[in-house]
Structure formats: C-alpha cells, structure tokens
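Mods, move this if it's the wrong board.
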Amino acid sequence: MFFKKSPNLDDGEIKLKYVSKYKDNDPDGWGLSYVYDVIVHDSNRIVGRCDLRLGQTKTLDLAGHIGYTIYVPYRGHHYAAKACQLLFKQASYLKMKELIITCNTDNIASYRTCELAGCEFIETKIVPKDHVLYAQGDREKAIFVKRL
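Not the wrong board. Structure tokens:
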C-alpha cells in the first residue's frame, strides 16, 4: 500500500500536518507509519502528534493502527478524538475498511478518546511478556475497532 495524501485533514478547529513516515521492516513490527502534527487553527500552535500505521502485524494487533499524544498543557479539549476522526478520513481514502485502536486499560483518558472517536470496544488483551510493549510497561490493552 502506498501513501496518498487525502484532500483535507482539517475539521475547522484542528488540522493534521504531515511530518514524516517510518517503515519498520520487522514483519511483526509497527508496519508503515505516517506521522502528523496536530495543530489548532486559532493559534496555529502544535498541540500534539498522531500517526496512522498501515498493515496487519502482531504489534499492531496490540498497539493499533492509530497512535496519538496531546501535550500536557493542551489536554482536555478532545483534540486526540478529533485527530482520530481526521485519521479515519485518511484511512478511508487509503481504502482501509477498519482500524484497530488500543489503549492501556488503566488509561481512562485514552479509553474515553476511543469512545468519543466513535470506536467500538471489542476486548481486552494481555500483553505477552516477550513483547516490546511489555518492556515499555504495558500489561493490558483495551482493543477498539473503527469500521469505515
């Protein structure tokens, strides 16, 4: 699958600006990721970062097709959920049919972000002890799906 930029990753409040891509060559790894800055229109300030990950791998089954972080001073405005909705637009443009989005089960804010973004909770998975996510401190993942 190759990258095609969608016409408009902008909802009037925030926009996503393409920053870079990353290719993990490990067949069980992160796949191909496209990274974006999350920018608020009224101040043109970068308030976070998100990425869209393409592929089907063991890591993406636990880490998901979307990753996001909103910087601490800008949390509480639902920017992560809004960024996810813009990434859904990009994923749809790339002909993806569904995306997996995950969060740690103890991360209430990310759990709520998945709900606000319109994702459906499907299950909780235990992170295997030999997985890179376990080494980062992740123990359980709440698995959500977004059908496009």
